[in-house]
Every structure is written in C-alpha cells, then in structure tokens.
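To whoever is on call:

I kicked off a structure prediction for a single chain this morning and the downstream step that reads the tokens threw a length-mismatch warning. I double-checked the sequence; it's 211 residues and nothing unusual in it as far as I can see. Pasting both halves so you can look.
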Amino acid sequence: MSQLPLNAAEDLINANEEWAQSIIRDNPDFFKDSAAYPQTPKVLWIGCSDSRVPAAVVTASMPGDIFAHTNIANQFHSFDDNANSVLSYAVDPIGVEHVVLVGHSGCGGVKAAIEAAAAGHVEPHNPLTRWLNPLIRLVRTLDLRGLSEDEAVAKVVEANIFRQVDNICNSEPIVTAWAAGNNVLVHGWVYDLATGRIRELVVRSLPSVCS
C-alpha cells in the first residue's frame, strides 16, 4: 500500500529535494555531468504503468541507466507510433544493447482482458478497451479452463510477454537493426509483486527467428 499522505504531490516535491541532496552528498558532480553529456543507457525497459513496478527502483538503477516506456499491460503494438518511436530512438541514436519487455504478476490490464474475453464480443468504445483489444484476442486463444483466477492471470501474463517480445522482434526498428548486424538483445521478463524478484522467460538475438 502507498505510504504517501493526502498531500501527495507536495510531498513528492519535498522528497525530490531530499533525494537530490543525498545524491549530491555522494557525488557532487552527478547532476552537472548528467546535464553536460548525452544519455547513454544500455537498456530500454518496456513495461506496465503499474505504480508497483517502477523500473529504476526495482533494479536499483540511477538516472541515466534505463531508457523507459510504459503503458497498460506492457503492450507493444505495430500501430503504436509512441512505442515504436521510443524503440527506434533507443536503438539509434542512443544505442541500447538490451530491450526488456517486462510484465508482472497480478496485472490489472490482464485481468480486464480476461473478463472482457469471457464476456463475449466487446466493442472497443473507450481508450482502454481499444488498447486492450489485441490482448483480449490473445486471451481467447488460450485454454484457461479449470484454472483458478490467479493461475489464469499468471498464464496470460506470461503468454502476453512472449507475444510482445515477438512483436518487438518483428518491429521495424529491430528488424532494421538486426539487418545491419546490430545484435540488440530482446528479453522477456516477469516481475513478481509478492517477492520483488524479476525472472527471465525468454531472450532473443539477431540469429533468432521470431514467430
């Protein structure tokens, strides 16, 4: 549960001041150097917008370590120029070496997709259902019979990670990079909310054929 009080926005600003001061105490030139030189992260994190899975926090990373993009249920769609532009910029000019697609246990977007799939035909009448529509279609291809709710969610979470890794592998930025001999690695990770641990499900590289 969040520990922020009711005046959360003001407290965030105050916490930022304390954090900045602590960084300066350890490294007086950190922010000056950060502003003076281009960013050179080695990792692009594509994850869920869930507040319980902040990329930098769960990996103990510093500013400049991770280039990040998040959305509901860690999706990567070919029609999404936002995600594709992030991936393109991360690969070139930034030059990341790893793209990690990160899902997590108990994903609310996955639960919503399972419920929608069970309800039958769902009109994509709002931004959320339009966004989740590909995930809803994926759910309908899976056999979830006999599974508890938690088991069904876990199965879809992992299937979604594999699907999004495939989508990234087949995206224009990665296809172009691999054709040029740039062996950017594409990883599929799942984060466990109950343990705080990350587990790798799959990693793809230039010689691999994405389905």
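Update from on-call: the warning came from a stale cache, not from the record. Cleared it. Sanity check on the structure: The mean pLDDT is 94.
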